[in-house]
Design brief:
This protein is α/β, with parallel strands linked by helices. The chain contains 4 helices and 6 strands. The protein has 2 domains: 56 residues, no CATH class; 112 residues, Barwin-like endoglucanases.
Length: 233
């Protein structure tokens, strides 16, 4: 893959300058690291990108042997624990680096919020192929925006028939926390009782519907299960 460095346009700044400027501001008005910071390692002043990499190597044992001087067109892959190490092209060639796989038994827990009489549908949120996260990059692509120009609310065909909703109808999805309005799309890919919405479009405020519950172990938000109701606008 060929990478080409482009000149900085207009008033744009290098990422290194932006991050260091932010670091100094967070550290205090005088640019010094706060005494509350555990193990401060930098004063946010670097001679260049190679100095940043020197700091990474000093703090990360698996990258201790990687430096700008050792980089070449073929690259150098971690783990590379010392300057004489050739790098590790294939990380898990014979076995996992930690040995055998680690399994953690879990006890099933009910979702924090299940459908009920007032909010009879289960909302699942996620992505679509053409867009990425909040759409700040992918929605700038004319081609991707042409394929998927707006957020939609996917509903099971039988549920839509029962609610008197057809594809392209404007519907409102409400939860105990908020509501979002968008166009419906009936589908046979969802089971009855489930609704799917993507979160790429600020115009359809999907995340306003989700709760604050998290997985007790991994602390992952429970965005895949929220009780909602649907109504035609």
């Amino acid at each position: 893959m060929l990478l080409t460095a482009l000149p900085i346009r207009c008033e744009a700044r290098r990422d290194l300058e932006i991050i260091c400027d932010l670091g100094k501001r967070l550290s205090g008005s005088n640019g010094q690291i706060s005494s509350d910071v555990i193990h401060p390692v930098t004063d946010w002043n670097y001679a260049g990108a190679s100095a940043v990499y020197d700091e990474i190597a000093a703090l990360t044992p698996s990258m201790a042997g990687i430096s700008y001087k050792r980089l070449d067109p073929n690259g150098l892959q971690w783990p590379c624990p010392n300057p004489e190490h050739p790098g590790t092209p294939i990380l898990h060639k014979e076995k996992f680096t930690r040995g055998l796989g680690k399994f953690t038994p879990l006890t099933f827990r009910e979702p924090i919020e299940n459908p009920d009489e007032k909010y009879p549908f289960t909302l699942n949120t996620g992505r679509v192929l053409q867009h990425w996260h909040g759409g700040t990059m992918s929605r700038r692509s004319e081609g991707l925006d042409w394929v998927v120009p707006e957020g939609e609310i996917q509903i099971n065909e039988e549920d839509g028939l029962e609610l008197g909703i057809e594809t392209s109808d404007l519907v409102r999805v409400s939860s105990r926390r908020g509501e979002a309005t968008g166009k419906a799309r009936l589908t046979d890919k969802l089971p009855r009782g489930m609704v799917f919405m993507n979160f790429h479009f600020a115009e359809v405020t999907t995340n306003a519907l989700t709760g604050a519950g998290v997985d007790p172990v991994a602390k992952i938000p429970e965005y895949k299960v929220s009780a909602v109701k649907i109504e035609r606008v």
